[in-house]
Amino acid sequence: MTEISSMVITHSKATVEEMEEVWDGDLEYILRELYANELVCECAVLKTCNRIEIYVVSPKGSSVLFQFVKKMGLSSNIFDFFDHEESIMHLLRLSCGLESMIIGEDQILGQIKDLYQIAKNLGTTGKMLDTAFSKAIQVGKRVRTETGINRGALSIASASVDLAEDTVGDLKNKMVLVIGTGEMGTLVTRALSHRDIELMYIANRTYATAKELADEMGGHAVHFDQINENLKKADVIISATGAPHFVLRHEQVLEAMDSREKELLLIDIANPRDIDPSIADIPHVTLYNIDNLRVINEKNLEHRLDEAKKAQVIIDEEYDLLIKQYKRQRADHLISEMYAQLYQVRSQEKERALNKLSAYHTIGKVENRIIDDLTHSIVNKIIAEPTKVIRNAAQVGDDEMLDMVSRLFDIQKKTEKIKIKGEPIPCSRNLE
């Protein structure tokens, strides 16, 4: 039976280094690679700074994902593999912020929306994943409306600012440099703007973007080629770019430290990392990355356990509704295919009967309508009871009965993916 399977790599098992090794970040390439597999009917990928998740709809999802892991040559110790129901529950919890490093954070919901939309735009999703992701987004919104799970919630961006304060103390008289003006960099800047801080500098490869953000947040824009000068003066640097390479190299920081006396704190919340990890070996330099934010999460979790319990009640309720929805969809698909087959036979036999009768009599509109009504009624009466049986089987989870109907009417065969001239044709968007 074709269902959802997923492979999940998160901060709970994998380090930043291990997540960086999974692939180079080309999301569309990975989606196309997965979708080209004849066994994959649908697929979607979620990639954030501290998680990589792959969802496939396939009759052999676990095999497909295992081969993917094997191809990457990574240790299976950092992966979790989920079956259909586990994948659905995980996705619902993820959208509500319960699986995030910072419990209850809001950013993950927007990331799910954006990453799902990429897969949808590429045409790699279908009815099953569309149903799951739509439900996840709806549940994520509901939990944030009906509970306080995100009230005062930290994000990785704000947690990095908290980590800076825990390390160097009050930031009021410190110079803080933020590198990057993307989503994460903007969140860092916003978190800093809410603190009592006077010297905030923002650097970006596009100076105009840095200046626009600096003007909005009360900071000062820095040309990217001036970072070396600011390295000599900054107390704290938080880097959050989307660059595929290091933006701070060992020799840069080493040269800067030769001309300064005070300590330097570097916090890297980018994935892939912005800051060369060897910089941590330079005297008087402290380098933190996403792994160090786990401590912040533990403090956050203590205050959110009650709200997390409320959120889980809602998730359980919505999970049951989603499973029932899938069952109805599977039954409706089988019934629709059965009707289509029987009505095709009905149409063919009706035409054959009319041709035979017309050899002896002139067949008018009345006779034609009577025969049409007769064959229509016969088909509906024949299929009425099987329809009830199929819907009841779906409702009680009798997969054996549904599989038998599928084989009996040769419906499973119609959902397989075939290839024409090397191009994959997607499976029917159904739940078989």
UniProtKB/TrEMBL annotation:
The protein's superkingdom reads: Archaea
Which InterPro entries does this entry report, sorted A to Z? 4pyrrol_synth_GluRdtase, 4pyrrol_synth_GluRdtase_dimer, 4pyrrol_synth_GluRdtase_N, GluRdtase_CS, GluRdtase_dimer_dom_sf, GluRdtase_N_sf, NAD(P)-bd_dom_sf, Shikm_DH/Glu-tRNA_Rdtase
Could you tell me which residue ranges the Quinate/shikimate 5-dehydrogenase/glutamyl-tRNA reductase domain spans?
Answer: 162-295
EC class of the enzyme, as a word: oxidoreductase
Q: Which UniProt keywords apply?
A: NADP, Oxidoreductase, Porphyrin biosynthesis
- For the ligand (NADP(+)), the binding residues are G180, T181, G182, E183, M184, G185
Indicate the residues that form the catalytic site. Answer: C49 (nucleophile)
Q: Could you confirm whether the keyword Oxidoreductase appears in this record?
A: yes
One GO BP: protoporphyrinogen IX biosynthetic process from glutamate
State which Enzyme Commission number(s) the record gives: 1.2.1.70
Where does the Glutamyl-tRNA reductase N-terminal domain lie? 9-147
What are the recorded GO MF terms, alphabetically?
Answer: glutamyl-tRNA reductase activity; NADP binding
Q: Which pathway does this polypeptide act in?
A: Porphyrin-containing compound metabolism; protoporphyrin-IX biosynthesis; 5-aminolevulinate from L-glutamyl-tRNA(Glu): step 1/2
Domain Tetrapyrrole biosynthesis glutamyl-tRNA reductase dimerisation: residue ranges: 310-411
Q: Which family does it belong to?
A: Belongs to the glutamyl-tRNA reductase family.
* Entry comment, domain topic: Possesses an unusual extended V-shaped dimeric structure with each monomer consisting of three distinct domains arranged along a curved 'spinal' alpha-helix. The N-terminal catalytic domain specifically recognizes the glutamate moiety of the substrate. The second domain is the NADPH-binding domain, and the third C-terminal domain is responsible for dimerization.
State the name under which the record lists this protein: Glutamyl-tRNA reductase
| Organism, as annotated | Methanolobus zinderi
- What is the gene name? hemA
